[in-house]
Each structure stands twice: as structure tokens, then as C-alpha cells.
Task: structure prediction
Amino acid sequence: MYADSNQGLLPAAAPKIGTSAHDWLIWFKPLTQEKLDRSALAPYIGRRLNPMLFRCPSDDWQSHKDLDGDTDFGPYYFSYSMNARLSNTFPQYNTDIPGLYRPLKIIKIKNTPEKIVFIEVDERVIRDGMWDPQDFPGTNGRIEQIGSRHGPYKGLVSDPKTGAWQSDPAIDARKFGNAAFADGHVDYVSGTFARDPTHLLPYKRY
Result:
């Protein structure tokens, strides 16, 4: 519905590095109803926008911390983020040609049943409204891991040399979270599935 009203374009993924008028969710502190109602998706969901729509019932969202320190943006009090590569946050990503700036239109997304738009993110590492897995090329070390509230595999592993949180592939394969896809369906997917570029890049096919 948003794309139909906006020349086929998708909203931005609401990253902490900056805000735009077309962010899918306006979430930065202080979080107010007025800000929520300015979110790009609010007109299609309903104003007054209910913030609980974007919080997993199993997520202790009130305990989320600002992982980058006490910034002007603050903690992200939601459970889901938007795939940066299926958004119009960084149009230069939306192409197979380096350096080409091209806004992404929804009709250009290939194999829509396999493309993640929204994903449940682990509350210990969620920073903002944008999903961009750590080990995905070009992410500059962002730490993103799938939500792990629904099963026994809730562990994150720490790199003994750097102390940074890392993803253990063996654990990723057993961690599952909810994801919404470009064709409109929702599924319960593994961390391995969520990190696969074929499920993240708009033009990449199997």
C-alpha cells in the first residue's frame, strides 16, 4: 500500500545514523505518539499508531539499552527491523553496478517470496529500525543477529581477541525468528536463512 502511494518506492529503514521523512518507523527518543504517527507506514496501519504492533510479546523491550552509548537517538524499543537492502535508505545499494545511485521500486524485486523485508532481531544487539547482518559485505562491522526468543539457542559468542559479539554458524542454524517477506507472507526462519544474500539483495536470484 505504501509503495502504491509513493511511485512504487519502499520506505527507508530508520537507521540510527540519520533520520528521513520516509523512515518506516519514527522511533528516536523521546518516543512520543506524535513521532510514531509521522512514521511512513502509519497512514496504512492506522493513526494513532499502536507501538505494540512492532513488539514481540516475548521481548522485554523496556530493558533495551542504547548500545552506542547515551546518544541523541536512544534505545530502540521495538523487536523488528527492516532489511536495509530492500529499502530506500541507501539507494546506492540497490544495484549490481557499483557507484550507481538508484532508488528501489517494489516491482524490481526478484523472487519476492524469498526476500526478507522485516526481521525479528535479538534484543541484545538491536540498535535501530534497520537490519544489516554483521558478516554481510559492506556493513562496516554492524552487529545484527536474528531474534532468539523462541527456542533454546539463545547464545551469542564473543570473539576472544576483540571482545566483539560474533555469530557462531552452528548456533545460527538453530536460532529462529519471525520474518515478513516481499510477497506479503510471514515465516519462521533460521539465522542462517536470514544471512543468506539471496534472501537480502533485491536482484539476486538462486
Notes: The longest strand covers residues 176-181. The two ends are 28 Å apart (CA to CA).
